[in-house]
Design brief:
This protein has about 130 residues and is mostly helical. It is about 60% helix and about 5% strand. Helix 1 packs across helix 2, helix 4 packs across helix 5 (about 80-95) and helix 5 packs across helix 6.
Length: about 130
Amino acid sequence: MEKLIDEFKEIVGDQHFSSFLALLKEIGPDARSHRISVVIASILRFAVNQLPAECEDGSIAQALLILDEEPYLAHKQSDANEMVFDLVDGLCSEANMMNERESARGEDYSIAENVILEYAAWYNMPWEEH
């Protein structure tokens, strides 16, 4: 997980990474999952916009591009999905947030899963398709 964090830090830069982490530490631990998921998805969107068109195979950069270009993979088990999940889990840990949570109904879920869905659906605006 540390390798993913380091690679992500390299993508966004030390200054941005420090700012993102400070933000997550400040608002994340008490944030509602559906709200913090959008914030983290925004951070991932920032990162993908920093990437070159070609990325190293098996890298977090490639995983972000894959989910950006093929958002349907957010609903499937894939290497890209797993890698982004692990990155978000690591960011949650760094920010002292619990990734794995339990709903009021006792159902387990994770912020990382929600982040991936938000990230993949970023441009999904069905009202514009008519």
